[in-house]
Amino acid sequence: MLLGILVVLCFIPTADVTENKILVAQRPLLIVANKTATLVCNYTYNGTGKEFRASLHKGTDSAVEVCFISWNTTKISSNSNKEFNCQGIHDKDKVIFNLWNMSASQTDIYFCKIEAMYPPPYVYNEKSNGTVIHVKETPIQTQEPQSAIPLWIMVTVTGVLAFYSMLITAVFINYWQKSKKNMYHQSDYMNMTPRHPPYQKNKGYPSYAPTRDYTAYRSWQP
Length: 222
Known about the structure:
By secondary structure, this protein is α+β, with helices and mostly antiparallel strands. The strands form two sheets. Strands 2, 4, 5, 6, 9, 10 and 11 form a seven-stranded mixed sheet that branches. A four-stranded antiparallel sheet has the order 1-3-8-7, with no helix packed on it. The protein is 26% helix and 31% strand. Strand 9 and strand 10 form a beta hairpin.
């Protein structure tokens, strides 16, 4: 009889440990490039708990509770640390923590904690390996001041101005070439202006007046 009782007592603790154990699995690394992260905490539980609490902790010592979610058969509630933007969602055998607007300073290791709150006994998971969330620096993009004039209007006006500039330049070059050609032909013309004979210079009468013969007047003198 005593031997039978000892055998039963040996199996009772083992049954309790096996029944009320929570195991949590997390991915080891999560790289964040757009300030948004989704951390999934998969868990298994074989107990009879009806009310649970899941929380996300930051740091190797889990000193900072980022956010938590609690649920039972009829109600779900959640809350977040004011320094984080976090929301927890329970879905069957996993808890999903969504984080957004993250900064590079929040790069750290994060741990999921699952607790069976009620009915007793109170059970929580052993500390898992955690997930390193690496938040990349977002390069600061300087935006150039946008012009009030639409781009297509500026392109059209620029094209029209360029066309008229080329047209005016072509007309000017054409006119310059024609003027240069005319000046070259005029330099080949001979000066056709009539010249006076040498003996008509220094006369008091026009060059077209006939020359008088004074010998006729001399023959009539007495």
